[in-house]
Amino acid sequence: MKNFTPLLLLFSINFLLLSCSSSEVPITPPITEEITYSKNVKIIIDNSCATSSCHDSSSPAAGLSLTNYTQVKNAAQNGGLHFRIDNNTMPPTSPLATDKKSIINKWKSDGYIE
After folding, report:
1. pTM to 2 decimals?
2. DSSP assignment of 29-97, as one string?
3. For 31, 75, 81, 95, which has the most beta carbons within 10 A of its beta carbon?
């Protein structure tokens, strides 16, 4: 039994060390390039918001079409687009990834460049 105790202790320590995991969220590096609607934001909006049965031009949800620069800029400045995206309420089926949110927020801080 004496020889078994150190072996059991060693096994327990190894088990605890190997079973540890990290649940940390990776940090998105800051965006240093200038963000524009046509180069960076449009693709995100087109793929996540201006889709069929959401905010497309044929049947826009809540009467809000997000199919061009003017509409998206207006929604960002006056319509709560940033609030809804940052609070994960839009898009409703799959919130935007952190890197995409960062692009849209940087677009705002850059002055909504077309």
Report:
1. 0.73
2. PPP-SPPBIIIIIHHHHHHHTSSTTTT-SSS-GGG----SHHHHHHHHHHS-HHHHHHTT-SSSSSPPP
3. 81
